[in-house]
Each structure stands twice: as C-alpha cells, then as structure tokens.
C-alpha cells in the first residue's frame, strides 16, 4: 500500500495524451501528488500551490519552457525543474541547465523511469550521498595530494598519446 502523497509536482505538457501517460506512469511509481497543466502560463498562475518540482515541456504554446523556467526560478529558486523535450540540441540543454533546470530529458527516450529516479534524488538525498558530501568538505588537501594528482594526470596524458 502506497503512503499518502507527500509532495506536489506539476506536469506542464501541451500534448494531452503524453501528459496523461506521464501522469499515470509517474503516479503509479511514486507517492507524489501530480497536477497537469497545458501551458506555461497555467503553471505560473498556480505556483501558489507550492510544487516541489515541475516537469516542464520545452515546446509549449505561448511562453516556451525556457521562459517558464525563468519565471518559476524567479518565483522560488528552490523548485526543481526537469525539462522534457523532443529537441535534441546540446546547446539548448546547456542553456536550460545554466538557467536552473535540474535535468533535461528527450521524450523519444521514454524517460519516465529516469524522471522518477531524478525526482527521488532531488527530493530525498540518500544518507550515503550526504555522508560523502560531508567527507569531501571536511578533507584538507595536502601538498602531496596535488603532486600525486599532477603525476597521475601526466601518466594518463602519456598513455593517451601512446595509444593515439
């Protein structure tokens, strides 16, 4: 038996069939509460519902995903935004990630499981991940660490040129 929905997540997708499929798939695999919108404008009007995340199509009628992302981040920079798109363009993905998107997935790759995993990682960081982050911030680098790093890098470069 699934627990009560714990967090609110928006799905912003103008393709009703894809939106329904995404809502159905994600709702069955998680305990989150999903609300769907057909446009960026609808999403922005409802940000007062305080979603923890937004799954946002890039190609929307009216304002596009980039403009919606900027408005969402202006409203609350802590809302996680995952972009989904049919556009296979690395520069676009980088632009969206630089603007604050948490991830960028191509629809043709059927990213539903990846979206669920990403949401879980964003909203429920594991104890192991937190422990690793704590260890990294506590570690002090010694001069010998840098020397080993530089020597290792030199060896890797030498091997690369030998194999080339």
Task: Characterize the structure shown.
The protein is an alpha/beta fold. It folds into two domains: 119 residues, Rossmann fold (3-Layer(aba) Sandwich), CATH 3.40.50; 28 residues. It is built from seven helices and five strands, in the order βαβαβαβαβααα. It has a five-stranded parallel β-sheet with strand order 2-1-3-4-5, with helices on both faces. Helix 1 links the parallel strand 1 and strand 2. About 4% of the residues have low confidence.
Overview in brief:
Helices cover 52% and strands 15% of the residues. It has 164 residues and is an alpha/beta fold.
| SS elements, strand count | 5
Q: Distance between the terminal alpha carbons, to the nearest Å?
A: 56 Å
Strand content: 15-25%
Helix/strand structural class: alpha/beta
Question: Main sheet: which strands, in order across?
Answer: 2-1-3-4-5
- The total count of helices amounts to 7
The first-level CATH class of the largest domain is given as: Alpha Beta
Specify Rg, calculated over alpha carbons: 20 Å
The overall average pLDDT, rounded, is: 84
Notable characteristics:
164 residues; alpha/beta; Rossmann fold; five-stranded parallel sheet; 7 helices; 5 strands; elongated
